């Protein structure tokens, strides 16, 4: 087993990290206060090949592995997990279109998605269906031209901000086999948005309900086949879970780096606080947990890249372990900063707020445990 990153992978991480520290980190708090990410940022990110990280090269993407992509999200989240996570959503949508869409929709959508002239959002969750995603009610009725959509999606990152939406809708009976995936452009008649959500974290990402009221789309806007949408959505989420775990990992690493620096300068009882053995134990525990999380994440990414039968189980386990470890670490880093950790100027409290939602989205960690347990019982 080789745990070392290749020279190319190290270069990918370094490039993403340098960009994040130069173009994102200095502005992260301002963007959080303003509640938006400047759209001019996305073409800069796309110029690095990050607009279609694992979209095939034939479709204009970078064709990277899932492991490669986790390195990008880990590095960018060291600057701002909210910005990095939003990029993950765009990439998840782009990959779904690349993998399941017709040649026509790929040719129409992906070129501008790769340059991020078109920013994509993912619409699965509804006010009445979160963890029970297969119970979604948003309906797409067939018409002579295509479909008429009616319903509401909730907690949509990029709602009212993104240029297009990959939407899971009901075209058939109740249950997962009645769900399809469609593509809806911003500005489509009948598409509207709720008010801006006031969130604990991820505040730079505009989040709104996305509403469909007799919203008409063409038959060409169907992604893949009718009745396969739930499968497409879950397939996208395996990779999304790795990405969000990587965002927790990078933010936790950044918090630990900041804490090591702070503790070397902060003095108490006549010496730097990093010289107290009790606090050194806390640092060691965080480093142990962080390295375990990084190894687990990369193993899960390797399994997904190699289509291992147990890849979904490992993606669920890694998402659970890494996001919970990340939250514990950033919270401990805040504690080691004392009162200063509670102040916005030091940057730690933002990481605590941003990472908390990682245990909820892309499937709650309770659902992740259910996935793992069901697979265990099936394999016994």
Q: Report the CATH C-level class of the largest domain.
A: Mainly Alpha
Largest sheet: 4 strands, mixed
CATH superfamily of the largest domain: Butyryl-CoA Dehydrogenase, subunit A, domain 3
Stretches where pLDDT falls below 50 for ≥5 residues? none
Widest beta sheet: strand line-up? 1-4-5-8
- How far apart the termini lie comes to 27 Å
Number of strands: 10
What integer is the average pLDDT?
97
| Anisotropy-based shape | globular
- What is the count of helical runs? 11
What's the alpha carbon Rg, rounded to whole Å?
21 Å
Order of helices and strands: HHHHHHEEEEEEEEHEEHHHH
- Alpha-beta content class: alpha+beta
What this model shows, in words?
The chain is α+β, with helices and mostly antiparallel strands. It has 3 domains: 7-115, Acyl-CoA dehydrogenase/oxidase, N-terminal domain (Butyryl-Coa Dehydrogenase, subunit A, domain 1, Orthogonal Bundle), CATH 1.10.540.10; 120-228, Butyryl-CoA Dehydrogenase, subunit A, domain 2 (Beta Barrel); 230-379, Butyryl-CoA Dehydrogenase, subunit A, domain 3 (Up-down Bundle), CATH 1.20.140.10. It contains 11 helices and 10 strands. The chain has helices at 7-24, 28-34, 41-46, 66-77, 81-100, 103-115, 229-265, 277-305, 311-336, 348-356, 365-379; strands at 120-123, 139-142, 146-157, 164-170, 179-185, 191-193, 207-218, 222-223, 267-268, 271-272. A hairpin with an 8-residue loop joins β4 and β5. α7 runs parallel beside α9 (311-336).
